Amino acid sequence: MHALGCRMNLAAVLNGLLVSVVAALLWKYVKLSEHNALLEEELLLTRQSQELSQVRIDYHAALQELQQHGTRMVCTGKMHTDRVCRFDYLCYSTEAEEFVFFHSNASVMLPNLGPRRFQPALLDLSSVEDHNTQYFNFLELPAAALKFMPKPVFVPDVALILNRFNPDNLMHVFHDDLLPIFYTMGQYSDLDEEARLVFMEGWSEGPHFQLYRQLSSKQPLLKEQLRNFGKLLCFTKSYVGLSKMTTWYQYGFVQPQGPKANILVSGNEIRQFSAFLAEKLNVTVGEPVEKMDEYIVVFSRSLNRLILNEAELILALAQEFQMKVVTVSLEEQSFADIIRALSRASMLVSMHGAQLVCSLFLPRGAAVVELFPYGVNPEHYAPYRTLTSLPGMDLQYVAWRNTKEENSVTFPERAWDQGGIAHLEKEEQERILKSKEVPRHLCCRNPEWLFRIYQDTQVDIASLLDALRQGLTSKPGPKKARPSSTVHPGRVREPKCQTSVQATNEAKLTVSWQIPWNLKYLKVREVKYEVWIQEQGENTYMPYILPHQNYTFSENIKPFTTYLVWVRCIFNKTLLGPFADVLMCKT
Q: Which residues does 245 contact at the CB level (< 8 Å), separation at least 6?
């Protein structure tokens, strides 16, 4: 017995030693990994610093240019909300964390706004309109002050200086950053693939930084990295601000969220961008899909807003549409793999969330099915419905809403930003728990909205299938791109009017014109003409929609009276052309 006990003790000692050795090796591996990561980061910054300091410009010539001519600025846009400015020798003090405009007798500042530059700002640094955390301005100094300042470091690259709005959220990454950056760069020929993106909002890289890297061959610079290059950094040529033309949604900072009042982008521009990004990520899109290969994609979430009966949902979709169903997850797959799956999918099904912005990679003819938790009205939260409805996106959209409270799981004890309400007064907690629908609200910390949107949901399969049967206008699936049908008519040509007096109280007015020049090159389903007739001196007019190129009016036409007449062409009921020059017709 004694010998057996010795052997057991010896085994325990050896096991203990082995565990200790393994633990020591693991600890050393972790430390080496951390050290390696730090070295890689330092090497990256060193490479960037070396790249910036390469002798691609004559330093003394650049310094002399700055001292003699100062900074030069020319902006486009009348208001700070639509302004992008081009600078020569805009500088940035990493000590003061301020941009600096150096004045000399040769400086240019257009527009020269004086103190209006601070009402409220020169421009918005992000594509989110008039947000007080996104304003850009600069300090002013005489160029002579350079002799008392740290030696400037000149950035030879053409730079685009901007703020990312929220780089942790995929919807914001695409809608507020990537699309506006892509089309801002497209507006200026020198903002090419060699341009340098400079992010000044102060965020770290974030989980989607690799997507920003696709827009330029140069590594983007973060605000925190600028101090590594010196105390005074001068951009030899830079553009500041972003075009807002590609944004379609406002987030509710001033009024409850919804589509922008004046949307300027179409699905054609969105699809051009998505094709560009897919190509950069080595994803082939646009290939034909055989009927037997059609499938549905379900976005799976693993942290919150779970679909509790996801397996049942997948089976029901497969049976209903006779298609394979696959799941994708941002937590488990690369973004390139997700794009690859979506680019050939017939349908995308997902709980409401930022991942639905990926629907811009779906092929034409596909459907987007957005699932909303209990108490959340789909009419009040519509960024993805708005995206799918843009002309040229050619996507179907169906919203499903959980109307059964017992099919939801809430998390009142979580942190406030994950839907928790335990931090609120007891009465407010009870009110939220009894509420049946989140009322319209402003962004961004409404506790009732967060409480409801972070629920887990058991999808009622029968009601979802009913919604799909009613909402889908055709069987979803990839379709060939059709030529754009949004071609507007030109002006009608050679408009003329003739008048005649039939009696003391009776007259006729004949108006004729030739077809718009571009119509002879188009196949248009329906062509109509709109004629406005207004008696001179009156505030009202009579509108007419006509199928022919001439018409004689007698009703309400008075003798010895002057009439103003406008004519324009209309394609397919909605595509309006410009009015021709006004005709002045005297009876």
A: 180, 183, 264, 265
Kindly report the number of other CB atoms within 10 A of residue 228's CB atom: 15
Q: What is the pLDDT of residue 46?
A: 46
Q: What distances in angstroms separate CA 565 from CA 234, 389, 532, 574, one per listed residue?
A: 58, 36, 6, 21
Under 8 Å between Cβ of 395 and 359: yes
Q: How far apart are CA 424 and CA 421, in angstroms?
A: 6
* 8 A C-beta contact, residue 299 and residue 288: no
Work out the mean pLDDT of the chain and round it to a whole number: 91
| Calpha distance 110→153 (Å, rounded) | 25
Specify the range with the lowest mean pLDDT, choosing from 29-43, 96-110, 319-333, 534-548: 29-43
At residue 55, the pLDDT reads 41
pLDDT band at 504 (very low <50, low <70, confident <90, very high): confident
DSSP 344: T
Quickly state the pLDDT bin for 21 (edges 50, 70, 90). Answer: low
How far apart CA 109 and CA 137 sit, in angstroms, is: 13
CB neighbours of residue 31 within 10 Å: 10
The CA angle 571-576-580, to the nearest 5 degrees, is: 110
Please give the model's pTM, rounded to 2 decimal places.
0.85
Give the HSE-up count for residue 143: Cα atoms under 13 Å, Cβ half-sphere: 19
Tell me the three state secondary structure of residue 75. Answer: strand
> Do residues 382 and 259 lie in contact, with contact meaning Cβ atoms separated by under 8 Å?
yes
